[in-house]
Amino acid sequence: MTIRYSKLMKFFRIALVATTLLPLWAQASQDGLRERVYDQSLPLKERITAMQELTGLKPDAKRVYRICIWDIFGRSGPIFSAALQQQPKIMQFGINVEMVPYTSESIMVEELKSGTCDAGLMSGLRARLFNKYTGTLDSIGGFPEKDQMRLAFKLMADSRSADHMVSGEYVVMGIAPGGAAHVFVNDRAINTLAKASGKRVVVLDYDPTQARMIAGVGATPVVADIVNAPNMFNTGVVDVLAAPLAGYEVLELNKGLSPNGGIIDLPLTHISMQLIGRSQVIPNELAQFVREAFYEGFDQIIERVEAEEHRVPDKWWITVPPQDRAEYEKLMQQARLQLRDEGYYSGEMLSLQRKIRCRTDSSREECTNMVE
Questions:
Q1: Is the confidence at residue 107, as pLDDT, over 80?
Q2: Model pLDDT, residue 350
Q3: What is the pLDDT of residue 24?
Q4: Distances 56 to 50, 59, 144, 283 between C-alpha atoms, Å
Q5: ∠ at Cα 8 (6, 13), nearest 5°?
Q6: Helix axes of 146-157 and 298-309: crossing angle, nearest 10 degrees
Q7: Strand spans (E) along 108-189
Q8: Which pLDDT belongs to residue 280?
Q9: pTM, entire model
Q10: Fold for the domain defined by 181-269+318-363
């Protein structure tokens, strides 16, 4: 009887140890799979297999992910066309995707929130509502040069940035370049900040930060949505419009510039388009592959953007004198700091942007006076 009792107790002890260690073994197995997913030195096929084992996502012809694309020109627009080129890359990960165009960014965003869309491609300005870190990529004056933006996008696609890509219920699935944003004016005399005083300037209805900055230089903010803003400039309702240079021809901005207007030869920033997914539907491990695919398409996308930018006639450019350029940069830095302190911008991203700018030009004052 004693021997049987001893054996029974030994069995229970072994079972207890096994029960205790089982979650640890399971966690170690998951951690190992996750490491393989994020190890960008491994073959893609091996990483995808690890992702499928980790997440349980297997190829399923019946499951179609609805990817909503904002393009003010709808199915025939350049953004939707570029998104369609990414579709085969996404499908190589074993998932079926359906691209659906939306001409209203605000409606698309609401459908993403409601779950009608599994993911939505939107402007970086709007993406800040879902992820402040990547949304700050579009900060005013953040990237004066294209190569600075390229480096930042490369870092965002690196697996070491994966933790930053998830915020609450949403995950950043990809970031694409939208080109440089410039200030368009209907009067070439508005070539300094001081001369913008009293002028009417378009500000986007969902971004209260813009109105505050415009009022700060003595101008009058006029609220509009992203679709109506170009038309307000073209019809003379407003005097100043900040817009992507690539939109010059498709938005017919020559109408607002004629006859005496111009474009300030100083980019406010280089803007982004961001694909935001629902993290309950799109695991971050799967999103990592999509982020890498987006960055691989950087050159192809920027080539199309620059082709549109080159359609701008030289006659519209307004050269900014060096002393005024310094004034612009100082004002943009002050705006970034204020918006950081108010919680609109990510301080961590602003710091990264400063490091990238200083890597390009170490003589900048901000490289020694590090306030960001």
A1: yes
A2: 97
A3: 43
A4: 10, 10, 43, 10
A5: 95
A6: 150
A7: 119-123, 166-167, 170-185
A8: 93
A9: 0.87
A10: D-Maltodextrin-Binding Protein; domain 2 (3.40.190)
